[in-house]
Specification:
Blueprint: H1 3-11, E1 14-16, H2 25-34, E2 39-46, H3 47-52, E3 68-73, H4 77-90, E4 94-99, H5 104-108, H6 119-132, E5 136-142, H7 150-163, E6 168-172, H8 183-186, H9 194-203, E7 208-212, H10 218-226, E8 231-234, H11 236-240, H12 242-246, H13 249-252, H14 263-279, H15 285-288, H16 301-311, H17 319-331
Parallel strand pairs: 1-2, 1-8, 2-3, 3-4, 4-5, 5-6, 6-7, 7-8
């Protein structure tokens, strides 16, 4: 049995959120070099794309990414069951149902955050996904949407999915306003309600609950774990300042004994990966765009970002460009 499958629940003590256009396979490969233990998530993959469109390339990932979870977007139990089966066959360690994305495109497909209004349907979907394949099925949700009262709807929502066998959930501690706020505004404007999520742990002591939303540092994540949360999921901070969040995570969150990872070592380890990607016909920028924040807050960070963002577009740019940028930033250390 692969390490990822065995340790997914343990790994969810700290996870990197699924983020559209960001957490693709190249991003996840980089993040795994920074932390051996955190749980990684794919971008949301829609069930129509997999089941009706046959877009199985969306399931591509490296064996080095484990433990890694596939997040699905959909609302048809039969399609979700089939997509979950495809995800398990592709080797993912967990199948996650998106009940939190507030974008208009997602709403029009009746999935994402709008599913907070349909807990019975969510339970039916989860039951179908659980029955269809052997991997654990989890849910990522909001505390509610629009005029819903989270104190009422969130416990009912959780009770429904627990009743069909869901044992782990990640709760974004904000409402989603489907009418009146953009997806970007929905990440910042609705107030965070950490205490509500923490109370859910008291109501559902056997449910593994991770908290998400507004976590910007590893210290903050550790504090939330110390306050009784089973896990913490970090999104934008883990993407824009990955070294700050991930390099010490194995030690501070998981109790690892080895030395912390470093962004410098990660860059060196990325060079053969970059070379292989280019040989296969890929573009340098498809990888380096995820590396821009590796040295955030350090001397030379701006030059690093400039060299990668401008240089990756040049003809014949390759791993040597990244190596030169790394040499330059190391001279500033």
């Amino acid at each position: 049995m692969k390490q990822g499958i065995r340790s997914t629940t343990d790994a969810s003590r700290l996870s990197v959120a699924p983020m559209m256009d960001w957490t693709d396979k190249h991003c996840r490969y980089l993040h795994r070099l920074l932390s051996r233990r955190v749980l990684l998530y794919t971008e949301m993959v829609t069930t129509p794309a997999l089941v009706r469109g046959g877009a199985l390339h969306l399931l591509d990932h490296s064996p080095n990414e484990h433990p890694v979870a596939l997040q699905l977007g959909g609302s048809d139990p039969k399609e979700l069951a089939q997509a979950a089966r495809l995800g398990a066959e592709a080797g993912y360690d967990e199948i996650n149902l998106n009940c939190g994305c507030p974008s208009d495109r997602v709403q029009s497909g009746t999935f994402g955050a709008v599913l907070m209004e349909h807990p019975a349907l969510v339970a039916e979907c989860c039951a179908a996904m659980i029955d269809a394949q052997p991997r654990e099925v989890t849910v990522k949700c909001r505390i509610g949407v629009d005029d819903q009262n989270p104190e009422e709807v969130l416990p009912e929502f959780l009770a429904r999915i627990v009743a069909v066998g869901v044992q782990r959930v990640t709760i974004h501690a904000r409402k989603a306003w489907l009418d009146g706020l953009s997806p970007k505004e929905n990440r910042d404007i609705p107030p965070l309600e950490y205490e509500l999520v923490q109370r859910m742990k008291g109501l559902f002591p056997n449910l593994h609950i991770s908290i998400n939303g507004g976590v910007t540092s590893l210290d903050q994540a550790v504090a939330l774990l110390d306050q009784g949360m089973d896990g913490v999921m970090i999104g934008r901070a883990a993407y824009h300042q990955p070294a700050d969040i991930l390099c010490a995570a194995d030690r501070l969150v998981f109790g690892g004994k080895g030395p912390d990872s470093t962004p410098e070592a990660a860059v060196w380890a990325m060079l053969p990966y970059i070379e292989a990607h280019l040989v296969a016909g890929g573009k340098l920028s498809q990888i380096t765009r995820h590396m821009l924040g590796l040295f955030a807050g350090r001397p030379g960070a701006r030059a690093w970002r400039r060299q990668l963002s401008e240089g990756a577009a040049r003809p014949n740019a390759g791993p040597d460009l990244v190596a030169r940028a790394l040499d330059e930033i190391m001279t500033m250390a």
